[in-house]
Specification:
With 258 residues, the protein is of the alpha+beta class. It contains seven helices and seven strands, in the order αβααααβαββββαβ. The chain is 34% helix and 15% strand. Strands 1, 2, 3, 4, 5, 6 and 7 form a seven-stranded antiparallel β-sheet that branches.
Amino acid sequence: MKRLLFVVILITAFVCVKQILVNTDTQVTDPVVSPAASPTPKLLVTPKSPTATPTRKPTATPTPKSVYIDGLSFSAQAPFGDWKDPIQQDGCEEASVLTAVYWAQGKSFTKAEALELIKKISAYEIEKYGSSRDTSAEDTENRLIRGYFNYANSQVKIVNNINDIITWLHSGNLVIVPANGQKMNNPNFTAPGPDRHMVVIRGYDVARDEFITNDVGTRQGENYHYPSSILFSAIRDYPTGDHLPIENVSKKAILVWK
């Protein structure tokens, strides 16, 4: 009986130990959680503001100022009113060039001297070129200023606008322009006026917006004022010859300086 009890106790102890071992083997161990790695902070790049292109301020057109060139002698192309003489009737180029070159050379002339010089210049043209009738801007410069007078300070320029003429005057140039005299609205011209004419511009009156001229086409032409828009509109070169057709309208000027 004692032996049986001992066996029971032994079996019971064995079962308990085994159970304990099983429980130990199957124990769930809480997993070790590694601390979450802190995310690497991203480098925030502040975008650069685009470089602003500097804005150019518009260049203001300078306000024209009055200008007046002094020291010019004056005579009409027909100094004593003999408009029936073909040489004087067509002598606007000769008289205008005489006015400008004598000013540039520091000389002066009387009406009698002007008449003599206009005839001499015309005779030179007839002998050298066969005619003294209408001469274009280029031929007026080449034949009369550089040819007859042998004077080098001159240049033919295109006239783009009124301000061109004002600028040239401020730079000390006399400005000789070929023009359609019928568009100049000069009441001293015999109507309808010359369709081929030359005039010397010597100044600009800003208060009246007028060009000041020595217009050799009339005895009233010294310091004669023309509205700038009218004179600019009338500027028109013409071909050399005896009233040849004007096929292309171009605005040109002859600059003469000291």
